[in-house]
Amino acid sequence: MKYLFAFLLMLVLPGPASAQKLINETDGGYKLVWADEFNTDGAPDPKNWKFEKGFVRNHEHQWYQAQNAWCKNGLLIFEVRKEHFVNPVANPQDTSWKSRRPFVEYTSSSINTRGLQSWQYGRFVMRGKIDVDAGLWPAFWTLGVSGRWPANGEIDIMEYYRGKILANIACGTDKAYKAQWFSNTKALTAFTDPDWAKKFHTWRMDWDETAIGLFIDDELLNRVPLDQLVNKDGSNVNPFKQPQYILLNLALGGDNGGDPSATVFPKRFEVDYVRVYQK
Asked: Which pTM value belongs to this model?
């Protein structure tokens, strides 16, 4: 059935370039085990994806809601918009950053496969196009299914903000909610193509029992052996020896995204496909 699935995908993909990319992604003995090609117009497939809602993490500017992500013409589209309405969770008696904001000023979407799809080891691939204007923070990443962050393990296969592409891996430390980061970046100015941000690119993770490697367009950005990723809390737990689930989102501002005030909205993050392969 796996071979049949891969063959059928090659038949429906738009053009020879996508078919060739499918062939390349199976190099090294990998076989397709799961994919979402986003070929059905409308909301993302609920068998694969759940939406996050509200203000979620990193003091980000956007309110997440389902209306800002949809499938059209073979693409999954995330759109961040400048809006203004009363914060539904505003509470002047609550000191949390989520409740202190009287208004929502921006909206976007975040989806994930938690509780629906997860995998231990494999090749995870996303082909997408990101906008690189100020304040934008698109991401394709994974989290471990068990444990409290960051002891559950985080892998940022694609992350962009403030003029750089990031490839990050995080495990836990002896302090709650404090991660040990293994990170590498590549500045947009390092790409020789002046139209780089106007084109689709392929981000990939190769994860096995020995290491995690993160790539963009087959260029290795970061590789960390698994034996360096044991949580430093005395538990001797390696969070990357458990299944991980996938997240896709378009964030704005917050702790890392930068100032979006000069950016003209709406802005988009477009995804052609997400695929998972295993040996």
From this structure: 0.92
Q: Is residue 14 part of a domain?
A: no
Residue 118 falls inside a structural domain: yes
Cβ–Cβ contacts within 10 Å for residue 87, how many? 17
The domain in which residue 262 lies consists of 27-278
CA distance readout (Å), 143 to 48, 121, 169: 15, 13, 10
Q: How far apart are CA 216 and CA 80, in angstroms?
A: 24
Residue 271 · residue 75 · CB < 8 Å: yes
**CATH number of the domain bearing residue 229:** 2.60.120.200
Give the catalytic positions in this structure.
154, 159
| Distance spanning both ends of the chain, measured CA to CA | 15
Is residue 254 in a domain? Answer: yes
Contact 201, 217 (CB under 8 A): yes
Q: Model confidence over 59-99: pLDDT tens digits?
A: 999 999 999 999 999 999 999 999 999 999 999 999 999 99
Residue 7 lies in a domain: no
Residue 160 CA: distances (Å) to CA of 83, 131, 176, 271: 23, 9, 26, 15
Q: How far apart are CA 210 and CA 275, in angstroms?
A: 21
The alpha-helical segments, DSSP class H, found in 208-248 are none
pLDDT at 9 over 60: no
Q: Total domain count for the chain?
A: 1
For 187-244, the pLDDT digits (tens) are: 999 999 999 999 999 999 999 999 999 999 999 999 999 999 999 999 999 999 999 9
